[in-house]
Automatic annotation (TrEMBL):
The keyword Transmembrane helix applies. It comes from Tigheibacillus halophilus. InterPro entries: Azg-like. It comes from the Bacteria. Keywords: Membrane, Transmembrane, Transmembrane helix, Transport. This is MFS transporter, AGZA family, xanthine/uracil permease.
Length: 105
């Protein structure tokens, strides 16, 4: 399937970025409806969610927002002494995400 996308990519590149805005707005609204499920009384849960939302808005990039949220989640849980609540794979995932942010600087 990835090989097939090589032939479709030039067609997709013709679409201007402005045309994708309505789809991104709908995705954002769909994601925003989940905010009511966040436990705002627990900082280790609410701060990563807040960072994800803020970074997504300010960078105009869902991937960057999610990466910032994952890093914040792991760091906050580790610093609060609740490191056992974090899956071991998340600690491994944080390493390339931090490298990603360093490469942006």
């Amino acid at each position: 399937m990835f090989l097939l996308t090589l032939f479709i990519t030039p067609l997709i590149m013709i679409i201007p970025t402005e045309a994708t805005a309505p789809a991104l707005i709908l995705v954002g609204l769909t994601m925003l409806s989940s905010v009511r499920n966040i436990n705002f009384e627990d900082v280790t849960e609410s701060l990563p969610a807040f960072m994800t939302i803020v970074m997504t808005i300010f960078t105009f990039n869902f991937g960057t927002g999610i990466a910032a949220g994952i890093i914040t989640y792991v760091v906050v849980k580790a610093l609060s002494g609740r490191h056992k609540e974090v899956h071991p794979g998340m600690y491994i995932l944080v390493i390339p995400l931090i490298a990603y942010f360093i490469s942006l600087a």
